[in-house]
Amino acid sequence: MAVATLVFSFLQPLEDAVRWLLDRFHYDFHLPWAWSIVATTVVVRILLVPLTVKQIHSMQAMQAHMPALKEIQKKYKGDRAKLNEETMKFYRENNVNPAASCLPMVAQFPVFISLYLVLKHFHAPETHPDLSWLHIVPSIAEKASAHWSGYLLLVIYAGSQILSTWFMSTTMEKSQRTIMLIVPLIFISVIANFPAGLVLYWVTTNLWTVGQGVVTRQLVPKAKPGAPVPAGPKRSSRTPPESPVAEPERAAQQPRPNPVARGPRRVKRNRGGPHR
Fold this sequence. Notes:
Elements: H1 2-28, H2 33-47, H3 49-75, H4 80-93, H5 103-120, H6 148-168, H7 174-186, H8 188-191, H9 196-219, H10 246-253
Helix pairs in contact: 1-2, 1-5, 2-9, 3-4, 5-9, 6-7, 6-9
């Protein structure tokens, strides 16, 4: 109980800030409570843009170093302790932080808990009886499973969670990625007991993540056929040596000079005549 009280007291300023945002969007901008939650979610994601940029850079760095990491995994696959040691050394030498991809999600967790506390003690004046979201769910403070449309919201949540995981788990192993895609379906029974407004918050942030993934993929140029092969990732003392087969393949990929493009060869003549 003492730990819970300490955590709740620590989150009290954030809870007050979330409630203040909801009130401003509802009373000042005359948005329904559901759309106030959507607007609050957008504000939170805008504030997390710097962390999102770090997340994208970390994912790109992981993709660039993935071939070297797979070589390390292949070399030390029989020694788990040595594999972890060499992997961490490789991360340090190449300035790669795999935990950076989780920063936006970790930063959102206190906001998620604060919104839960706001909805738990949610009371609106009788002069503003509109507690519905999209005029379907009776109250954003009720459980998502209390109304048929709440189940529709849960389906949207599951789809948005799978899509967001698909975009943000490109650097994971296939087995780990499969687990991350299945987890949302397992937790639906737990999330069904959350307030509908909390599920709506998570749906909105998932859709934001999906849009962010689409924009990121559009901004990152794709390699065109026949384009020069980019340089490989930065090698270090921990990077395993390449196989002997890789050198002829790299030599074959180098562009060869075109003798026709240089024009005919010119022969320099001796103006002083023949040498006697």
